[in-house]
Write a structure and sequence with these properties.
The complex is a heterodimer.
Chain A (H helix, E strand, L loop, with lengths): L23 H5 L4 H29 L10 H36 L8 H24 L12 H5 L4 H28 L12 H33 L12 H18 L2 H14 L7 H14 L15 H29 L8 H24 L1 H7 L3 H31 L5 H27 L14 H31 L52
Chain B lengths: L1 H5 L8 H36 L1 H8 L4 H26 L3 H31 L17 H35 L7 H28 L4
Helix pairs in contact in B: 2-3, 2-6, 2-7, 3-6, 4-5, 4-7, 5-6, 6-7
Classes of the chains: A mainly alpha, B mainly alpha.
Amino acid sequence: MSNATSAGDYRATKSYLHHEPHSIRAWLLTTDHKRIAWLFIASITFFFVIGGLAATLIRLELITPVGDLLTAEGYNRTFSLHGIVMVWFFLVPAIPATLGNFLLPIMIGARDLAFPRLNLLSWYVYILGALFTVFAVVAGGVDTGWTFYTPLSSMFANGNVVAAIIGVFVVGFSSILTGINFIATVHTMRAPGLTWFRLPLFVWAIYATALIMVLATPVLAITLLMVALERLFQIGIFNPALGGDPLLFQHLFWFYSHPAVYIMILPGMGVVSEIITCFARKRIFGYRFMAYSLLAIAFIGFLVWGHHMFVSGQTTYASLAFGLLSFLVAIPSAVKVFNWTATLYKGRIHFDGAMLYALGFVALFTIGGLTGLFLASVALDVQVHDTYFVVAHFHYIMVGGMVMAYLGGLHFWWPKISGRLFSEFWAKVSAITIFVGFNLTFFPQFIMGYLGMPRRYHTYTPEFTSYHVISSLGALLLAAGYLLPLLNLGWSMFWGKRSGSNPWHATGLEWQAHSPPPPLNFESVPEVTEPPYNYDARDPFDGSRPQ
Amino acid sequence: MKEAQNAVRMQFEALDQQKQADTLGMWIFLATEVLFFGGMFMAYAAYRWFNPDVFVLASKELNLLAGSINTAVLLSSSLTMALADHFIHAGNKTNAQRLLTLTISLGLVFLLIKGYEYHEEYSHGLIPFINDQFQWEHGQADRAELFFNLYFLMTGMHALHLFLGCCLLTVMLFINRGRRTLFRPQMRIKLSALYWHFVDVVWVFLFPLFYLAR
């Protein structure tokens, strides 16, 4: 480790934040991956708030069994808004476009991504598509849910379906461009000595995610395009009146959207691997298995889409095969959970804020993953299909998993991104609040789903009232929990203590760069001489803040 | 060699690395294109499986002669494209530019013939979403409509890609005019050629599926 990591000389080079020019125009035309990461952080936070407001409306409506806040139509539009915004404009870009963008080149010792202008383009494509969709969804509303199932979306739904679809279509290209960029970068721009099996697991995770992005997203694009053409010009492809098959839409849609679920979780796994090994002060257990299991999840993820269609008229044999393949995903996923646990075993564990987020991720992901096995069993799925059980399951993965990991990663790398330390106390409070609030919100949904509460209904029979009330109160706590990091990190951006380049005494090239890094990241190309996570050889870290 | 050094962009260490990254990026982009078309091929496969007879009948309505000429035109354009790539790497920019022009022209000829075909199909009342009355007398008119929807969707999407390819090559033609450098035009033409060949290969699949299904 070089001596350049001491706190004092961080001013030696002007950082990417302070580097001239820093007008708004310069930020909007930047090709610096770190500034583009900021563009994404700001935009996805904005969309998270919009999606969160829709969720708030949903939870408020569901406090009572009757529809008193929203009409049935209004409720449909609200949950569609929530789903569309959260899935496509928050979760899919969440970690790859922010932390991935910021860290990937630094972690591999490069000056930037392979295609910096493409990177900027991907933000513009994203923001234009997303704003267009949100405008369409707010102005006229869409009541199809985020899945746009035909023939509802193509023939019957009112509202701006086409506009919403075009927006999502456009945003898809942002994913594709990001994916191309990341893959080319990892393949060709690793620093000398940084072999594939010396890569941090976060890079492996982003790489696996990028593979899914480039291979799945185009199928979504053409599928949505076919729906839009059918609705606009009557070019029927899925229209049953022509002998078209709505089931074909579901096949094509889930061919993208199931792998997309792994776009939403793999980066989280990468983040958590970094955090746990750092705060356990131990090498990650089974590094190669961790890397292979990321690729395995990405690969098997392409073979399981049919488990969304057990009750859609797919043949029983297909359902059985898809059920079996879905079980297979549990193997690499379990490898990861066991290896994180084994990494903790006999480690010197420090319960810092970022670590609490990571541990919360492991717990919630485990629950979400195991209930996924319930849903992959055909017989059980027939019972709980389209109930709150499903809703709870995927929220445990997407919100419990991905959002926890995103916030954990944001805390962990915040000193690198901003050069400042945040309040450790409030970071811990927020992690615990979110963990408790999340479980209060979604655990009751498993129970009521099992008892038969269907999803997407704005009224329900009174027997579910107490579950819904607990869930709504939990959501309140969850919202408060999400507000805390915004305040804590926002405060530290301006008034936080200088962090120095490596406050956690972590391994990895990114911690050798200044905090915040200069525009070209490193003064000279770093050379890698040791395996990843060489924490055994690191100086012990007693958890105190460096001076 | 100085020229080659100037061509290395900021983020790269060496020219080879940059070449590798650019080429890999293009190949991955083509992979996304394969999957984009894959969705439509999937739809075709499913519906042909469900309606084998109507698809054969409908295929007979297409203009096989025009389709065959177009296949020849497009395959020739791939040849001229490959030759342009060859000449630019051999250092002969004049020939490369000429062949590029020829490639664009062949692409435009393809589009013209395709447009003629579309017009012919329109006058036969075979465009379900434009003709007021879809003309079909062999029974199962709805399934035939499905065939023509797929035909116009897939060939239309292909034509759009070809059109973009022509635009791309035209841009290359103009920005390659400067006499100073050779390295950048080589890379541009190599990558554009990859895209052009891809569009060509898509047609190689479309042609038998639609025209030769009779």
